[in-house]
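Alkaline/neutral invertase
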Amino acid sequence: CALVMMKQDEEGQEFIERIEKRLHALSYHMRSYFWIDFQQLNDINRYKTEEYSHTAVNKFNVIPDSIPEWVFDFMPTRGGYFVGNVSPARMDFRWFALGNCVAILSSLASHEQACAIMDLIEGRWEELVGEMPMKICYPAIENHEWRIVTGCDPKNTRWSYHNGGSWPVLLWMVTAASIKTGRPQIARRAIDIAESRLGKDGWPEYYDGKLGRYIGKQARKNQTWSIAGYLVAKMMLEDPSNLGMISLEQDKQMKHVFKRCSSWTC
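Tokens:
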């Protein structure tokens, strides 16, 4: 976005060069240090702590014992995702749908990483999609911890609202990411699930439960963004070129992602 706003003149060129240099550094940092897959998880599990100097493998002094147990069972052999950062040496290993979909759409994720994110969604379909696309994060924070992390918002009990709730508005992002990675069948499957319930349930804001089976206990009905998320997903699936409206310049050059693949079904 910064590159698009710059003037194409001598003064602008100086800043364009600075932006490109910074983008390269930031992309490398994110793709290297905030990415986790089976191999990376295996490596972190064997990290030594309190390493120093430029030769340190464990650059952020991540303590292996800080890795939650659920990650080892959740991580498929194929697939991966970007994790969050809470503080120095402390990573948030939860899956966040919004950040990972945006990483694909903005090309922050490399092609291999984008494909791995979609592999993860397919491999952990029940946990991340279930009966209503899509979990805003996984897994839910339980016991007393959710009160501390979420500000004690009563809607944020486990598997509800921002604590593992399922949000129909995320449907368009999953669809866009599916199209960009050439896997429209994932979008079609998610849309089919949404279509079976959204209208009948009155287009609620979010859903509760580990599988998203229940309408959110404080979810408002007839939510514009739930309706819009479904409509945008349908429009993109019917005409993949619509993806260009939410893509940056470097994405528009990847024309192959707009073509219908052999597995395309609408």
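The chain has one domain: 2-245.
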